[in-house]
Known about the structure:
- The chain is α+β, with helices and mostly antiparallel strands.
- The protein contains 22 helices and 34 strands.
- The strands form 9 sheets. Strands 13, 14, 15, 16, 17, 18, 19 and 20 form an 8-stranded mixed β-sheet that branches.
- It is globular.
- The two termini are 53 Å apart.
Amino acid sequence: MSTAGFNSQNGTGTGQAYANGPSQNPVALQQLPGVSYGMTHQPTYNPMQAKAPPPPGPGLYPSGPYQPVPPVSSYQPGPPLTSFPAPPGQPLLTRPPLGGPPSHTPPQSASPSPGPRLPLAQATPPPPAVSSCSYYPNPQQPQPMAPAWQYNTAPPPMGPPTSMSTPPRGPVANHVSPAASSAVPPPPSSAAYSCAPPAHVSHSATQPPGPGMPPTSLHGYTQPGAASPQMNPMAPHTYQPSRAPYGPPPTGPPPTMQPTLPPTGHPMANATPPPPKADGTGAGNGPQAPNNYNHVDNKMAGLPQPGPPGRHLGHYPSLPPGYQNTSAPHNATSPMHPAMQAATQPYTQAPQPYQQPRGGPGPAQLSPSLAAMSLQSSTPEALRVVNLLQERNLLPPRPIPAPTPCLPQDLQKINCHPEVFRCTLTSIPQTQSLLNKAKMPMGLLLHPFKDLSQLPVVTSSTIVRCRSCRTYINPFVIFLDQRRWKCNLCYRVNDVPEEFMYNPVSRSYGEPHKRPEVQNATIEFIAPSEYMLRPPQPAVYLFVLDVSHNAVETGYLNVFCQSLLDNINALPGDSRTKVGFITFDSTIHFYNLQEGLSQPQMLIVSDIEDIFLPTPDSLLVNLNECKELVQDLLKSLPNLFEKTMETQSALGSALQAAFKLLSPTGGRMSVFQTQLPNLGVGTLQSREDPNQRASAKDIQHLSPATDFYKKLALDCSGQQVSVDLFLLSAQYCDLASLGCISRYSAGSVYYYPSYHHQHNPAQVECFQKDLKRYLTRKIGFEAVMRIRCTKGLSIHTFHGNFFVRSTDLLSLPNVNPDAGFAVQMSIEENLDDMQVVSFQAALLYTSSKGERRIRVHTLCLPVVNSLSDIFAGADVQAITGLLACMAVDRSVTASLSDARDAMTNAAIDSLSSYRQSVLTIQQPGLLSPACLRLFPLFILALLKQKAFRTGTSTRLDDRVFAMCQLKYQPLAYTMLMIHPALYRIDDLTDEGALNINERTIPQPRLLQLSVEKLSREAAFLMDAGTVMYLWIGRNCHPNFLTQVLGVPNYAAVPDNLYLLPELDTAESQRTRAFIGWLRDQRPFFPSLHVIR
């Protein structure tokens, strides 16, 4: 496959990369000499590959509007798509993709740099040459015209070749042992031949303990309002089932917690630290390498154990039969938006009673139970054939639930919640060739730090983990007896520690299978001291404010200062919490808030080329000790710059100063900017041509104009500093460049176009509500995350806001409950002898109270060997969300038109594969399985989404911000942006209403997004995630107009109405309650626009 144009997205390089798509190890990125980048054993299906039109198949697409554009496919004409046989004597090779190669190609360096930061010059590899092993077997075949995604195979390694005779030195994460790497299966007869495959880093059963999460401290912290931990002198573990949530939900007090329903979500990275070595070298490296987690992880890994047993042949080891005796599901989740609520319905997580026979595992085997549930025995609803050209009611009347994996009921009850951890395919193919044949992307979507109403919290002196792969013990391991358990990722047999024999819930001994760690797929540990590199950092908040003339004119400074004054006591933290302020225009202003001063002192630094801190010790102050001075400053700031005529903005220098101020401790930097930086370092020029906004040509300038902000973000990440950007502007601000400061430091981007305190009150309301949520939501500091998966599977691409510190360790200086992540996966080794596979995400972070915690999510999915089973388990929403992330990367590395073609090809390819490989009776029409019937609709919706649309005037910053949201937001919110929800609200009743905090919330039916559902006699609310539209029909009943809008007739409805009046009528209360409830379900505040 061609790798021309490859750009490291974590390096500093050319500044062409947009998002953290590829997980790059920026150390020593170079091409393997003499090795072209090809598949190890199977040609990869690339949904965005250049496509050549296949021969017209009989009835593939019926006559009509679809004929002029034949479906494009990258596969050979002639033979059916079910196989790819090579003619005798002629190898069948994949063609190189046009444009750039996939933007997500993680190099697998043999020795990741142990330092906290990398020399930025090394981060961008030279573009490798096109592989000479890929060519078109048929010279007469038309040249490809459309781009393709390479999304089911791990991209080739980009690091130096690893010796096959000696294990790599230094901190190596999940490397391949010589035995494993030399045992690559030969390509089957149907596979495309490729050049010598490069050595690939994979999760192997023979790997030594990889770097885990950094250590953390043990503190007996209890959130206010939560029960204090019970200390049982007889138990080394304290199980705290009633721990309160770490941050308040968007509104109202947090719900009480129960130990039964640990929600599970999108875990992202395996930040799991090994136990310390006996010589104590694990926790004492803080001063020398305070940010070097790989170094600590390897020191803590201990001596390598004898190689774990090889792959278990035959059937998958039986799971204990006691899992079948489960208690009744207990659903204690609070009511949610219907579009998010549906995903939770089939999942309940109550503690599972477990009776382990004394003689070891019982006769119940997993294999027969799974075989009995084979989807081939009868046609399930998911495989019902739907003709998309004839069936009108494709949209379901209620939200689409996440598909339930085909697992035994007892396993499914304790599986991870789909809102936290979700896979695009709930049935994992046995081989990469089978996955290629299905032509659907395989990946995980994660929401690892989600606000949870029930989260079991365990305080333990011993955190039980696999001695080989460092997996945390979880509900899907196998207890061979009371003293031994088998890892469900690498199959190593481990001993059960003596402390783990005691169950803190039942206060009984000898029942390790009943402990909360083995009963909950989502759990949080309060980590012992060996999980720390340094003492846990305090909560530190630094606010960097634009005070130029343009900023003062918008009026944002008044809103910010008032909001912070109102919420200053709700900032997450403890007695060590620190705050600081920097303002800037053409100079940088610091504020001395030292205790004992009668009023804040402003210190001005005009030398922006060589920035320095005037009084380093008094610029960040303890909030509790200096609260009065801080409040005085917030009250005076708006008036201080009220008359300013300074128009220049030295943002780059202000960021450098803030970085110097936060480097010793780490923390959160909140930057407020209202114009294009035009002075000093980081200066940007306007790149937008308003005349080209609606052009059908490719959109330019989606990539950064400079790498200054990316380099600074990498420096911030190395010092545990995260940067959140608030952009409030009516003019072009080059978000594509400024956004890098947040993207690579695990921050967030907030964008308020045309913000003005008088001219745009709707944006002011959004800013106020978003700022309150931002200031008060829970936060995790100095976090790392790692995802592990069963051997044979490989994770190769990450999406989201982070920095990839090594091949699979994500650096998250801050982690917040509104951040989502996605990963792409491939199958490196056949899974023939496995019945299930597991994925585990572990997030190690420091809470705002100074506790070191580890949140672990584990997901279990079945392995299948037929295409029909794969299609039956397809999760159309997860597939759409992952494709959206991939399309954003493609838009930046190649072009917007390539991304649009690629999304269209993805839908065509999957439906073509279904038609030719699954359907037994060919029939005319555009046929789809019921589970994918909305896939073409979602792709069409994506093509009209602000990020990818053409032909409509779209401001460049608006487009880039939409791309940021698609990459960063959790799936539930992304799907509302892609495909809005529609409700009729002029006839709301209390029938079926929810009762929340003594409020009655009506629950209208979800309507299909079709013009035939609209009526001039009604009023409709369309919820598009970040914005809501209330449309009033011309003949709407006068009662609704008077009782809800407070106007006598249709003509009196104001043109710019964005607030519903608070009328003392039942209709007004119902309407406002419903809209308010929808807004409460998401982390951002959607504006409301009343239109007629």
